[in-house]
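User: Teach me something about this protein's shape.
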Amino acid sequence: MKGESHPDYRTLTFSDCELLYWNGQIRHLKVGGIQVVNAIYATVRDRDWGTVPYKVVNETLGERMDGFSISMVLEFREHDIVFNAEINIKAANGEFIFSMDGSAMSNFQRNRIGLSVLFPIGECKGLPVEVLHTDGTSSKGVFPESISPHQPFQNIRSLRWEPSTSLHAELLFDGDIFEMEDQRNWTDASYKIYGTPLSEPFPVHIGKGSRISQTVTLTLSGNTGYELPDQECHTLQIDPSIKESIPGMGTGRSSEDALSPEEAELLKRAGFNHYRVELWLGGSRWQKILKHASHEQKMLGWPLELVLHFTENSHRELKTFLDQFYQQPVPLKHILLFDHEHLSGKALLGEVVPGLRQAFPFVPIGGGTDANFAELNRNHPKAEQLDFIAYTICPQVHASDDLSLLENLEAQSETVFTAKELFGLPVSIPAITLSQRFNAVASSNDKRKHEAPPPLSPDRRQGTPFAAGWTVGSLKQLIFSGAESLTYFETTGARGILNKKKSNDMLSPLFHIFREVLAQGYSHVVSATSSAPLLFDGLMLTGRSPDKLIIINHTTEEQQISISGIKGEIFQAFQLIEAAWSEQRIEALDLQQFTLKSLAIYKFFINSTG
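Assistant: First, the predicted structure itself:
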């Protein structure tokens, strides 16, 4: 595809359209360079809203002059769930049909089974849309601009909109009652239409032999009048006139082990300014955790971002906490307050905020949710009792593939903008992680009030260059949206920024990214816009001499890029190899054609002349 390269995906065309196909999924359906649909796919969600994995069998793909056809079987299987779905995809003459005919091969409970369609935020936000409902009536509206807490459109039979002034699109849905949700609530950069509405009870028992059939038909007419230019070399455009201050940044206490002196010495070099520690005050372990955290704080020198989880006995728990804390006081950066529903409810804030204000008059107190932005958007705390608003970020509530994680980065800034609009308070993101910390919406959740919920599996990409690249994109989104405090990952272990190994092998790519961003004297991030952010990205730092530019190749393929807008000369360049920076010999760096190696991370120092 022109301007886009993802090795695992195959480019297919029909009429004036082009799209990516991989593993039973349609991605990035475009007409004349305009993205009309982000994705169409089949999914099975279990009783806890987990996405059931599948494998593709008996796949056939045929291409013709006027389009293509694909057929396959998706075998969904996890625990007691076994579900087979026959998928047929046909495209020709401006019409695209995606159908599913599925059969349950076992007895199980599900929250959702069927087809989903994702619409891109950047191309759709604010566009008018007409909805034909299942009862034959119609309504008009727009794709939401601020993040909608609830379904913007329900009972959808068909949807009509204009991706451009001369391009008309219509989606027709069969086999279920469909509705739309705003997936920015979970930092997915999409609006999603899915079948079976949330107003229906769930989970639902599915008997062996049950069949589920759905079809989505997309019809396109008109044209954009736009010719997508050939683009052999992508660009990174630096704009020194646009810059933002680097916010306060911290990391979280390891959920696996206490911090060793060796690890603490390494972490101090990263330059964080706070240390997240969680205490579940209704449980039996929090005093021990506080004791360990107090010792670790002394080794690190960073004040605590203290997260206090209360039960309905919050008055008694607050008194016990304060008595214990006064015996071993620790410097505090922030305090966050949550109940056993992972919210900052009215009753909790009224009960504990006055006592905390009296005990810690100069420590900011925040709240909101310890879960996804969706929970904050649907459950507003009393903002007048708080100094800042908080929620957490994880990029893979719905999808876990590399491409989804990268394209969903743009939704992170959307959450900050909406939170500011709703509450008028500074925004803190006190837990940003690659994998989910826990499942806050599980139907089988026992709502444990006294201890932390069981952690979910860590992400195998945590210690890889991909995680570093995702973090660069996250930093850009959150810094330029004006977030005032960010807390990333954990110190060590499978969710950490240090590997549990010896010597220099402990320094993961994530560690190097934070160390470069938080290096003493660098105070601002300068605008650096990638023409292909799903392929590569960059982060420009200024505030001391020399300026610093970090560039990351997200893909396993080499990328040819040009760098423009730099006021000065690159006089030193490094590539991160294994766990250390290796200086690159550059006689005369040609910024018009620089080759990024596979999954490479670069650091350039620039003598500024402006």
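Now, about its shape. The longest strand covers residues 34-46. The chain has a mean pLDDT of 91. If you'd like, I can walk through any region in more detail.
User: That's plenty for now, thanks!
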